Amino acid sequence: MLETLTNPPEDVVTNVTFAEKSNLLAVSSWDKTLRLYNVDSSENGKLVHKCEWSAPVMDCIFLEDDKKVAFGDLNKNLNLLDIETGAVVTVGRHNAPVRTVRFNSQLKSLVSGGWDKRIKVFDLRSTNLKPTADVEIYGKAYCMDMINNTLVVGDSMKRVYIYDLSRGLSGFSTPDTKDGILKFQYRYLRCFPDEKGFALSSIEGRVAWEYFSKDPEVVSQQYAFKCHRNKTSSENDVAYAVNTIDFHPQYGTFVTGGADGLVCAWDGFSRKRLWKSVTFDTSVASVSFNSTGDKLAIAVSDVFQLNPSQSATTNICIREIKPDECKPRKFK
User: Where are the WD repeats (predicted)?
Assistant: First the structure.
């Protein structure tokens, strides 16, 4: 079953993300809003808060208590919304737009990646805007994810940085790096739930399956596959950007959303597609599973990839996930 929420953003969606302990959904957008929806069955996808901001909101993430949402904006600021009071405070700043944000519970800090080619860490226990860590990367921060104390960043120069933060801030001094995993510009990355690696997508309809380990036997299991493509002839196909990835919290399978207007579910271990959605009117900009894996939020939004000449409506849809839909092949 697919439910479309009322009161969607009026411009391109940059991210959708569920809270860790509830069915509260945060949606950030170029329309300068951060919206919160309660998608519990009893609330029927009610819009419970709308934060109107001074600039487009580029990314958002819940903190561990689900009472605050951090977001980065086009005006170079990293901000924190208190859901209960509606108050917003600026906790950090870059020299260019803040593209991506994550929270580290061990450091009690927000980690932000900016188009100023910097990764910054801001301790939420501090009262000033000075970062506790500020590291330069090769290109603009395009995508980022964190699983416990492992931070992974992909930049505009197609380099991936892997930081081990179990050692605290000293982990920023010696990252592992991987270059040219995919041929074309990186679009999105998401860490495996088992903390062993990450999936990385590009604008050319490909996803790479990568491991952190340098063991040759493990490295030999890495691969990349084509997806979100439309064959135009026996020899040629049109490749669409893979805009978003999320893993099922229970089974470790994952979904991708593409500029072709499709959501596809995959078993990364068997290298098989499990299912694909109906084709939406325009690009799938972002997806997010809730903590129990029985709901999938899908942002359908024209990110200027599918058909820029055609005006498309932004929608936030909730897909109910049946118990067997995302099970790996071997358990079906």
Answer: 91-132, 242-267
